[in-house]
Design goal:
The chain is an alpha/beta fold and 214 residues long. It has two domains: 140 residues, Rossmann fold, CATH 3.40.50; 64 residues, Putative phosphatase, domain 2 (DNA polymerase, domain 1), CATH 1.10.150. 47% of the residues lie in helices and 16% in strands. It has a six-stranded parallel sheet, sandwiched between helices.
Length: 214
């Protein structure tokens, strides 16, 4: 097998986090008297981290201070409720176990905060990832290549032996910027047509298909 390492996105790729994220966003909006958002709206806002998520969710025209207040509430509320309904997609845990059995190294790289990423990995994938990296001070977020490069350095694997797996246009751009091959999953937060329009060419419809594609 050519690949020695796989870098996974988190939200929409290995974890179905949508309901907990939507719940936290709508709690934070409602607390300040703002209209809540539909599940599909929030789904379309995901992929660029919580600052962008809240910016897209709040009403247009509110002040920076008001937006910051909503963001701070989300930052406080979400970690307490990030596992209420979140769960791994069917087949993901078995996939990770099989990759480990085959000696393939794995990392998860997400625009969620580093603390949230590590907490979720510990909760749902304890011992199944070699490296987990989230958003942190001084490191450019995806689609910049910085976090992926950091993951590969920690894994000790060069780019020609690594592949990226994600579910969104952010991930497609991350793979491109990181100079990695990519498998795009279809069970996540974007539909297939949108992904094709953004350059996706290799798809997995189930986690089991990822093994075949490797």
């Amino acid at each position: 097998m050519r690949y020695k390492a796989i870098v996974f996105d988190m939200d929409g790729t290995i974890l179905d986090t949508l309901d907990d994220l939507a719940g936290s966003v709508n709690h934070s909006l409602a607390l300040f008297g703002y209209p809540t958002r539909g599940r599909d709206e929030i789904r379309s806002f995901l992929g660029n981290g919580m600052v962008r998520l809240i910016h897209l969710s709040v009403p247009e025209g509110i002040s920076k201070e008001q937006e910051e207040a909503v963001l701070n509430e989300h930052k406080a509320y979400y970690p307490l409720h990030s596992c209420d309904m979140t769960k791994p997609y069917d087949g993901i845990v078995d996939l990770l176990k099989e990759l480990k059995r085959r000696g393939i190294k794995t990392a998860v790289v997400s625009n969620k905060s580093d603390a949230n990423v590590k907490a979720l990995v510990s909760q749902f994938f304890d011992g199944l990832f070699d490296v987990s990296i989230g958003s942190m001070e001084g490191v450019a977020r995806k689609p910049a290549a910085d976090m992926v490069n950091m993951a590969l350095e920690r894994l000790g694997v060069s780019k020609e032996y690594a592949i990226y797996i994600g579910d969104s246009e952010v991930d497609l751009n991350t793979a491109k910027n990181s100079q990695l091959d990519m498998i795009t999953v279809t069970w996540g937060f974007r539909d297939r047509d949108h992904l094709i329009q953004n350059g996706a060419t290799v798809f997995a419809d189930t986690p089991e298909q990822i093994l075949d594609l490797l």
